[in-house]
Design goal:
8 strands; alpha+beta; globular; about 180 residues; Aminopeptidase; binds coenzyme A; about 25% helix; 4 helices
């Protein structure tokens, strides 16, 4: 399995997978991702080189978006944003942030989500950063349990935000089965 940066041609695939997952979440009574994510928001992270696709035999089977902290100027100014997910004492710059992780139904159930997170932690480790972090949908406690099972620790929840449950796990070397194509 190869993991490589998404291209503009992957945006529609990601939007389709997301739509399917939103319907699934709704059927479970979860309102996660009920606020539509515009296509351009996905296209923008693809353009920025932050979105990755896992492929098997050239077919896409999963996606994850990784970013570095972009608010370095603010991190020494607490109170700047009362809804900030990460606080100065968390050293927000010392992490890679994972988001928009999706495995489509036809490939779910083989722990590819966990594998992509391990891989992301490896990228954080190689970059010399201490943490792999993410924010999960505030009300989706089943999703929180999933991250806890993968070794993430809950840091805080910013209840006024829809995706305000902050989780982190120490970065560590990646020894898994995804081969990175830079
Ligand atoms: C999270 C995800 C990438 C994991 O893919 P995977 O490794 O193939 O694992 P599975 O799909 O089998 O999910 C593992 C378990 O977590 C549960 N789970 C996954 N996402 C969930 C969610 N958003 N809400 C509630 N439960 C969820 C699954 O139902 C499954 O539970 P089970 O073990 O009782 O069957 C995939 O389930 C997915 O795309 N979920 C929806 C999108 C999402 O919530 N992404 C994370 C948001 S940042």
């Amino acid at each position: 399995m190869i993991v490589a940066r998404a291209t503009p041609g992957d945006v529609d695939t990601i939007m389709r997978w997301r739509g399917q997952r939103v319907a699934w979440l709704g059927s479970m009574g979860e309102d996660q991702w009920s606020i539509p994510l515009p296509r351009w928001a996905v296209a923008a992270t693809v353009l920025a080189g932050q979105t990755w696709m896992v492929r098997h035999d050239d077919a896409p089977i999963g996606t994850i978006t990784l970013s570095a902290y972009t608010g370095l100027d603010e991190m020494w100014k607490p109170d700047v944003d009362p809804e900030a997910l990460w606080y100065p004492e968390d050293y927000p710059g010392d992490a890679i942030y994972a988001a928009k992780i999706i495995v489509p139904f036809e490939h779910a159930g083989s722990d590819l989500g966990a594998e992509m997170l391990d891989w992301a932690g490896g990228r954080s480790f190689v970059a010399g950063l201490t943490w792999l972090r993410l924010d999960a949908w505030t009300t989706n406690t089943r999703l929180h349990d999933y991250y806890r099972r993968l070794g993430f620790t809950h840091v805080r929840t910013i209840a006024s935000r829809v995706s305000g449950a902050c989780f982190q796990r120490p970065s560590q070397p990646y020894v898994g089965r995804l081969k990175t194509e830079e």
